[in-house]
Fold MFS transporter.
Amino acid sequence: MSNKKSALWFVIFLGVVSLCADATYEGARSITGAYLGSLGASGAVVGLVAGFGELIGYGLRIAIGFLSDRTRQYWRITTLGYAINTAVVPLLALTGTWQAAAGLMIAERTGKAIRTPPRDVLLSHGAMQVGRGFGFGLHEAMDQIGAVAGPLMVATMLSWQLGYRGGFAILVIPAILGLVVLLVVQRIYPNPRDFEPVTADLDTTGLPRLFWFYLGAIALIAAGFADFPLIAFHLQQTGVESTSQIALLYALAMGVDAIAALVFGRWFDRVGLWSLIVAVALSLGFAPLVFSGSFSWAIVGMVLWGIGMGAQESIMKAVVAGIVPAQRRGSAFGIFNTGYGLAWFIGSALMGMLYDYSRGALILVSMALQLAAIPALIWVSRQVRREP
């Protein structure tokens, strides 16, 4: 088997692991906002819990990234993270207070923090063989197949009148399946670094300056992106549709996410960062639609939301892999995700507070932050093209 074909299969196998993991935690996330509301949480609490979970989840990644690069134990750390990430989700079926549910939601984000930097390093080696945009885009697309399947599983349980607990309990199936596949794939591919030629790392003083400017631009996008738990809370509070239909709406967004990841990822390999710039321009209009009070407009808004998420998840990491040497990529992914998560936390907390105060202000802030990122991304794109 050629090196490129073997790398492609490696990317696919990692995608299957992520598919199962996403089915588990995205299935839960499709109803956690509404679930917290049913347990008595306010809009501010939902926004803060969602944002704090992202803060912990992303903040821990900086330490995990450095640890991964120092120990080179990418597979072991990845496995530990996936185990925590998926194991706590079915336990939500046993909770009876919003505080307990919030604790498990934060624990799930912690597991994701542990496995993401080393997993992304492993994935980057295969992506270098098949095309960075395509490799990360294919992985994200498979992620989102799981993110569609999970909410559909939950919606089915809700439609069968098994309630929130039944919805959380069914997710034990993809959780176990994903861990089994992960253990198998690391035996087949013990050294994914072999996919990528070894290059000398002459600059040992830190990460490239361009990396930091790029992180600043992405932070603006993250801060302006409303998290789905707040959107679900809004739909529940306005009585737009039933809980099962909210889960289906999330499944729709994840399906769009999968398609966008492939399309924009492949486009990135041809035109570079302009693919992300176009995606941001499209997705910044989601806020006025999803918070309009109309379920029909909310559907359109979630399509735009899915486009933004898909393009971000595939292209953002592909750019980092291209501007940072392999030897420091775990640290770079950890720092990048920490900055992204901090911005997401600030944005989520602000959105939750603005929701209780003025949805109009929420919409304006969301759009303004994303719009501000576009000039910065254009500058980064020009600098990348100038580099040898």
Summary: Residues 204 and 328 are 9 Å apart (CA to CA). DSSP finds 15 helices and no strands in the chain.
